[in-house]
Amino acid sequence: MRKFRVEIWGDGADAESMIRAHAERSVQGFTTNPTLMRKAGVEDYEAFARKVLAKVTELPVCFEVFSDDIPDMERQARKIAAWGPNVFVKIPITNTRGESCAPLVGRLSKDGVKINVTAMLSLEQLREIAKALSPAVPSIASLFAGRVADTGLDPVPMMREALKILSGLPRCKLLWASPRELLNLVQADECGCHIITLTDDLRRKMPLLGKDLAELSLDTVKMFYGDATKAGYRL
Fold first, then answer.
1. Is 189 part of any domain?
2. Residue 22 three-state SS
3. Domain tally for the chain?
4. Which domain holds residue 19?
5. What is the b/e burial string over 42-59, where b = at least 16 CB atoms within 10 angstroms of the residue's CB?
6. For 47-58, what is each residue's pLDDT tens digit?
7. Stated pTM of the model
8. Strands (E), the chain
């Protein structure tokens, strides 16, 4: 299988799956968010986080604040950061009222909190955050390249420019967020992105990378034929 320079991080909220991926050394870090946690049926936020952190002790793990009030975001962020030295606290670029979280990011980063700034979809947002982050503290800038692509725009030029913007922050990693297909892994690697998040479903497709297209075509034909046979279709 092709070797990648970009770090592959798991994206999900199933604790057992995260612990298994860690044991298999198939990822180099983890992210989750309240939406993924709700879909996975997580009811106790802190209990879920501590279950993961009890097993994943050396890889970075990102947990997101969920308050919409910026002072309360700060309280949550400092509490989450205290859960372990490998924890990155995810802070959205704004709250639901569009109020910038850059000042909050600056305060936390200055105090040594490892931050993952999330939900960014523009270089203007990234520039604002780059000014706020401390160059001495590890941080992550998550640009939602997949959602940019959903609007019909090519995210690759944006990600290349993002790397230039972050060049003055040697401890900040650019994360390609919300990928839609394995091609995004190749794109992230080729443009020099530091991290890409992949769901379990996308990671399961990785054996397809580099597969002979004629062989894949034949596999596809066999799948269609097999499913038609199993369904008992007649004409």
1. yes
2. helix
3. 1
4. 7-231
5. beeeeebbebbeeebeeb
6. 999 999 999 999
7. 0.95
8. 7-11, 30-31, 61-64, 87-92, 115-120, 139-143, 172-176, 195-198
